[in-house]
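quick one, two chains, predict together pls
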Amino acid sequence: MRTPNEPAPLLPLLHAYHDRDGMLTDDALREISATLKIPLADLYGTVTFYHFFAREPGGRDAPRVCDGPICKLKGCDGMLDALAAEGAKPMPCAGRCDEPIPVLRGGEVLTGLSVDDLRVRPTPLPPAYPGDDEECVFAHIREPGRATLDGYRANGGYTALESALRDASPGAVIETIEASGLAGRGGAGFPTGRKWRAVADAAGSPKTIVCNADEGEPGCFKDRAIMDYDPHAIIEGMVLAGFATGAERGFIYLRYEYPKTLEILERAIAEAESAGMLGDDIAGTDTEFRLYVRRGAGAYICGEETSLLNSLEGKHPFPRNRPPFPVTHGFEDLPTAVNNVETLASVAPILRNGAEWYRGLGRGEHAGTKLISLSGDIQRPGNYEVPIGLPLRTLLDDWAGGPQPGRSIQAVTMAGLSGGFLGGEDLDATLDEPSLRGKGSFLGAGGIMVFDDTRDMLEVAHGAMRFFAHESCGKCFPCRIGTQRLTERLARDAGPAALDAWREEVADIGATMKATSACGLGMAAPLITESLLRYFPDAVRAHFGD
Amino acid sequence: MTQTSDAIEARTASQTTIVLDGTEVPFCDGETLYEISRRHRKEVPTLCYDDRLDAFGACRLCVVEVDGFRNPVASCTTKATPGMVVRSTSETLERHRKTLMELVVSENTGGSARNGNIDVDPLRGLKSQELSNLATRYEVDGTRFAGATSGKSRQDDGNPFILRDYDKCISCYRCVRVCAEREGDYAISVMNRGFHTQITTEFDSKLEDSACTFCGQCVQTCPTGALADRKALRDAETPGELKKTRTVCPYCGVGCSVDMLSKGDKIVGIHPAMDGPANQGALCIKGQYAFDFIQHPDRLQTPMIRASNGQLVPATWDEALDRAAAGFLAANRDHGRHSIYAIASGRAPHESAYSVQKFIRAGFASNHVDNCSRA
């Protein structure tokens, strides 16, 4: 087996045994423990952290049915019942909210609205651009063959890399990215150029670029669209990031639920290697960059960058305490840039067209574009590339056709689930952080789920909190206990019988979670209850029979 | 925290200040806000902190306010920087701390909160009172935020040393961390995630089937008594005040400091001494648990001498000492001083070990003396 000699060997080894045996046997764990010198108790505990590693015979191939917020609306409970005889289990949002209900079976994802309807369907392409502005990331994604090297090259692919390696300095690349205003598109919004500069300036090597393709946020499926239809854009962005920072290795950390994407990425990497765009002497220069794909195993928290790094390193995927930050102490405690798929896919177009061009793509003072995954009760769900600052109403009504006829939009989620709900007059927000933060929410990774006036928002909120409780890593107390307690209270399984006392408990738990949680999960989860109480006090009262 | 004198000097050289609760206080390079607060006798609460371990930042009780930071920061994981303005307490902080305590007590009320008091027998372990003390301080009884409880006791694990009463566990992972960072056994770990986390071993086995060496350090750092000293708990109902006597473990040459626990005349348990210079709270299975022989009924109650028929019979001390002296003198006279060799037992008190070497060296002008603890 070659993986023990590659960096970050644990996940590939676990998957190799898991795929071979259909489960992770005791013997497999003993062998891996001995090979990688990981204490057996640690390895066992870490394996149980991941949702998809099965410890019972046949567990790997038992169907997993998405029970995310949108699949709930589509009837995933019926699908689960229908597949119960095959040992079907639910899985959290699998990132196909613009498709029928996904069912992960062994190595493939089927989609369908009923068991008879289940088949493999390709990732939907983004709808034809409905706007009057210009796209950046999606500009060429709809062209046939774009995922191949030739298709990518047909529209200027790898020219940004070639000219940067030949004619530009790493500092010049960083300056252009800084000037463009590009910021982390995974949700945190940290300026990309500043992150790269910090890695470039940090002492210690080898340095690393990590592409965060864990896309675990419910309601988000934009990164998969890029990876499936434009994988070379990510590779080019990563090599450019490596050149700019002095990193010579990179990882794409891909969520487990995207098996087809894994094949596409590996094929694209092989193509890029044989074309001299990866490996030694890239594009005939002395730049080198090696790229590895690492497949996750089902843990939302691994989209948090320090959990992701621990997962890559084979450690228990708890988030790390910061500072120090990954830019100085990242993968194996060495300088590391962790960037989202969308961020990296924006890099080559920015270098080709210039920082001013990218800045100009946003509305008003906002720079650039943002991919939005739109789903739920809306006529044309899908991925849209919006100018930052676009009115939310424009996206919902003009671009995506509005709600189904005769319906009205009751609420949308923001940042997948992490930004809570927007409703009422706040649907007049614009899609940029200042506007949304002013309403107690944020744009984040750009998932927007729509719920029309027929939906029970208490039930939606309960499902959302159940997700956060399921995905809480268990390290910090406010999140571990708070998500559980809020879930119980939304289900009315526990907690005060009187509305006022109930409200006070929910508010107190939420306030302490927001103020004291160790990472974004615990800080974001109470936005669900907070926004529920803000926009839907009547629904909450009705829940109490008032 | 251990440090060489060089490191202390380097720290002193780079000393500078922060403002803590309105007072300018000096700190040393690398010090955390928690360390500084504690040095200044601030009562910053914590449940996941053990100063021998890497700061973990899990319980969030130690959060403090720092000017310029939107949210409170965990003081245990935040290093001081010059000029920081820090508040170790405020109305907001105390409200968050109380909510956190209400949450954590609601999680593990499995049998421990009764009539508003969390009653934990101090025999369970050295740090076993931490949760109940903080619950008293914040007037928390586990009734607010009631709901599902977490952690499942391992009643099937019948080892004689460590009670795994996880119904009381608050998932601070001090046990897991002390096992890895201090003992190096890596015998226990964290299983599952979120509210369903549970302390486990390889394949969730019993401790005797794991890499555990029963050193007991997990027991002694546990802040709730979820991990408890099963041997000490045998005397939970024994009457008498619990008394501690500082001594040094005689089993080997390390010289671990221990506090011997007694009720009346009975030795009921051992606590490692956190301030023991040789062990800093560490012990091994022998030092922690192997003390039953001291007051065991099988011990000799009176000297015995061998009668002419080969049988051992009880004797007075004078008879026994005369017989022994005669034997030593005869051997010395007939075969010379090097015919005599003494080995003292590691189970004997230090005073006895001293007497044995004195006896051999002064009595026979020989260095033929050893002690099984030398190994």
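The two ends of chain A are 64 Å apart (CA to CA).
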